[in-house]
Amino acid sequence: MFARIDHIGVAVEDLDAAIALYEQTYAMELVHRETVQAQGVEAVLLDIGENHVELLAPLSPETPVGKFLAKRGPGIHHVAYQTDDIELTLRQLRSTGTRLIDEQPRVGIRDSRVAFLHPSASGGVLTEIVQPSKEH
Ligand code: CO
């Protein structure tokens, strides 16, 4: 169903401070930075081996990540599993009765295609399925 972990999503209040931690202290390379209006976040990707850490800062308190920060504070927000065929993976999940937030894939960071599972269906771990764009 899933090929590997694509990234861990981390909700942050101070993006510059978080970037400093991951770049300078953890010596991870920042490879992409993008405002994703549809998700209400400014997102940063850092490389760790073949995988990534995705830092997420909310564009406003009313966004999902803004609400997450108000309720839980900074920390791990979601895990993203990679697939090379997101339509097939969503069909497989539907066939097991798994509830989805996104019935259809939408555009994610760096031209990926993403879909989130419903939290009630994923054991309390917000779970994203991601199909990277061909260039990445
Ligand atoms: Co993500």
Question: What would you say this structure looks like, in words?
Answer:
With 136 residues, this protein is α+β, with helices and mostly antiparallel strands. The protein has a single domain (4-131), classed as 2,3-Dihydroxybiphenyl 1,2-Dioxygenase, domain 1, CATH 3.10.180.10. The protein has three helices and eight strands; from the N terminus they run βαβββαβαβββ. The two termini are 20 Å apart. Bound molecules: cobalt (II) ion (CO). Cobalt (II) ion binds at residues 7, 9, 54, 78, 80, 128.
Protein traits:
2,3-Dihydroxybiphenyl 1,2-Dioxygenase, domain 1; alpha+beta; single chain; eight-stranded mixed sheet; binds cobalt (II) ion; 136 residues
Tell me the name of the CATH homologous superfamily.
Answer: 2,3-Dihydroxybiphenyl 1,2-Dioxygenase, domain 1
Major β-sheet annotation? 8 strands, mixed
Helix content: 10-25%
Assigned CATH architecture:
Roll
Radius of gyration: 15 Å
Report mean pLDDT, rounded to a whole number: 95
How much β-strand is present in the residues?
35-45%
Number of helices: 3
H/E topology pattern: EHEEEHEHEEE
Lateral arrangement of strands in the main beta sheet: 2-3-4-1-5-8-7-6
The number of distinct β-strands equals 8
Distance between the termini: 20 Å
Q: What number of domains?
A: 1
CATH topology: 2,3-Dihydroxybiphenyl 1,2-Dioxygenase, domain 1
Q: What is the highest CATH level, the class?
A: Alpha Beta
